[in-house]
Amino acid sequence: MKFDNLRVAHKMWSVILGLLALMLVTAICTQWYGRQVTAETERSVEKYESAITTAVSWRGLAEVAVTMSMASFVTTDAALKADFDTRVAALTARITPVQEKIGKSSVSADDKAALAHVAATRADIRGQTDKLKELTDAGDAAAKQDYLAKVYRPKAVAYLEAIDKFVAVQERQRDAAVQAAHDSRASLVVIGAVAAIAVVVLGMLMAALLVRSITRPLDRAVSLAEAISAGDLTQNIHDDRKDELGVLTRALSGMSTRLRTVVSEVRVGVDSVSSASVEIANGNHDLSARTEQT
């Protein structure tokens, strides 16, 4: 159905409801996108916080294990050494599943690189532990102490620093996720502003279309009415619109046509009366002339 054929009330309601629907859709889309950004940020932050917590726990276990391992090689008390070794074995058993858990959740290249470095330093420190056991079994206390101070301790520090670097990577990624969320919200504000401007512009265009669909036929109807009131019955406007203004224009045009017909009929009647009057006058004149002759 053409817009011009709608009734004026229907046109106005169409424009109003169309704008309201557009505003509603814009608001819903904006809210949905905002919720998606928030949910994604929460998931990312939760993931990195979990990784940080697990890595910090790993770091604590590793530090205790390294400290006890060094104490085991330093002490000369066999019972105490056995207790340290038992505790180190238990800590190592706890560290392995923690490392595996972190490995499964690490997906980015930075995660994998940092975790690979931790795994390498851990394997290195475990190799140094085996070397210290060999020196202990050989009974070379001086060589063991020298190796412990110059090799094992720096390797242990490197192992703990590798875990710290992994934690730092997780913290950077968490901060990056938060910053990305802030950027997305800023983009959402811009998108919302653009959408609002688009709605306003579209509303202006729809309003202009509505005004044009009303004022143009109304101006034509007014012009026709003014012409009729001025006595000009020659104008005839054809309008096939189905709204009230089209009906009004056709009614005025029909009135002009009907008045033109009436005027024509009156003129014909006047001409007939004039002709009859002339004939009567001529007859009277002839009758008067004959009377005078007699």
Provide a descriptive summary of the structure in words.
With 294 residues, the protein is mainly alpha-helical. It is 90% helix and 0% strand.
Please identify which CATH superfamily of the largest domain we are dealing with: Aspartate receptor, ligand-binding domain
**Mean pLDDT across every amino acid position:** 82
Q: If you compute it from the alpha carbons, what radius of gyration comes out, rounded to the nearest whole angstrom? A: 51 Å
- CATH first level of the largest domain: which class? Mainly Alpha
**Termini Cα gap:** 85 Å
CATH architecture of the largest domain: Up-down Bundle
Low-confidence stretches: none
SSE blueprint:
Elements: H1 8-74, H2 78-105, H3 109-138, H4 141-229, H5 244-293
Helix pairs in contact: 1-2, 1-4, 3-4, 4-5
Outline of the structure:
By secondary structure, this protein is mainly alpha-helical.
List keywords for this structure.
mainly alpha, 5 helices, Four Helix Bundle (Hemerythrin (Met), subunit A), 2 domains
